[in-house]
Amino acid sequence: MANVRILQAGAAKPKGVWPYTICIIANPWIESPQNSNQFVADPIINNEPMFDAKVRYIVDSVTGRLPGQAEKMFAALSADWRIVSIFDPDRKRKSANALIAHDNTTLVVARQPQFPAFLRKFKLPKMGKLQADVAFAVTASATHNRCSGWFTLDDDSVPGRPFTVDGQAMVHRPRNKLPGAIALHVNARSLVALHEFSHAASSWTNGMITDLYADDGDGLNKRRGRPIPGRFCVYDNQAFAAAPDRGGGLAYPADWDSYHCELADPAFPAVMDDYWQAAGNRPEKCRHDKLTRQFLLDRVQTIMAR
Amino acid sequence: MEPIRPKDKQKALRTGATEEELAEYNRLIAQRFTTNPYAPKSADDKRSEKEREQRIADLHHKLFSDV
């Protein structure tokens, strides 16, 4: 029988309007290999205590409550979020119930288009059918354990809060067509959940927050050119400086032409960079760069205000 | 996506991988995760995507099959 738990109800809203919502789901089936239409059982569905422990970890990592965690940007806001966990061991073997795929490496990959219909199957008292702004699917795959996330697909037909980045017009949208979607393995620890959440909470069409440990994969938080200029960008009429290095003693490799925004704490790499290289093996000390931080705060607050 | 875990990276380097190959692997996967799957694709886009995925699979086999 499905166990749907409302960990936080979130801010009071008019009927039919949801507060910012995170759903954390025990993944029932894995498409393996990806795009094969073949499905194997996800071991997480036989281990509810393990799922519950991972739910606690995800909430702690995203809201800045891990021991020693420095990035607490969502700590205050998250008190008004709705957070729901779903453990349903009775889902049949079919595509609609597989929220994760095994890719051609060891990455677990969220099947983002499956999430809205999966969530709508659950109806909560006085809240209605389940929906999400960002959703985590938790897996205990025996073969694939590297986590990943997809950006939110915004509903660009609804009005939102306009902004510009170096003159390019975009909009923080309060509604989505597909929630940001994350495949998170039970081995995940430290900043993994916050890092993937930060991808997923950004947008395919209104600003992608991308990985900073690879030269490719352009996004709002990555610029190109040498020499590195003093200014990174102007976002929402506010100037942001470029980072002369990647923080914590990490240099930009000589063959890169990308550079990043000024760090909130240059003693450590950014949350979107290779946090495993943080000095003293302390990834929890990493913080976001200043643009990523401001962009995500503005975007999440726009959605919270719907 | 999650950065490669240090123990996996060290094992790959010990078994003959190079930093350049690891960087290419990360670079190609970063391309995958920043290519909008919901946007229209041309025939060239589809061919490039297929080639990229094959290269990712080949690199993964070379770098991590012993990890």
Uncertain regions spanning at least 5 consecutive residues of chain A: none
Radius of gyration of chain A: 19 Å
* Percent in strands of chain A: 25-35%
Main pleated sheet of chain B = none
The rough form of chain B would be described as: elongated
Q: In total, how many beta strands of chain B? A: 0
Summarize the structure in words.
The complex is a heterodimer of chains A (306) and B (67). Chain A contains 4 helices and 20 strands. Chain A is globular, with a radius of gyration of 19 Å. In chain A, a hairpin with a 7-residue loop joins β3 and β4. Chain A is of the alpha+beta class and 306 residues long. The mean pLDDT of chain A is 97. In chain A, the strands form 7 sheets. Chain A has a 6-stranded mixed β-sheet, covered by helices on one side. In chain A, strands 4-3-6-7 form a 4-stranded mixed β-sheet, with no helix packed on it. In chain A, strands 8-9 form a two-stranded antiparallel sheet. With 67 residues, chain B is mainly α. Chain B has helices at residues 6-14, 19-33, 43-64. In chain B, α2 packs antiparallel against α3 (43-64). The longest helix of chain B has 22 residues, at 43-64. The two termini of chain B are 19 Å apart. The model of chain B has no long low-confidence stretch (mean pLDDT 93). The interface between A and B is medium-sized, with 35 and 22 residues.
Keywords:
heterodimer, A: 306 residues, alpha+beta, 6-stranded mixed sheet, 4-stranded mixed sheet, 4 helices, 15% helix, 26% strand, globular, B: 67 residues, mainly alpha, 3 helices, 0% strand
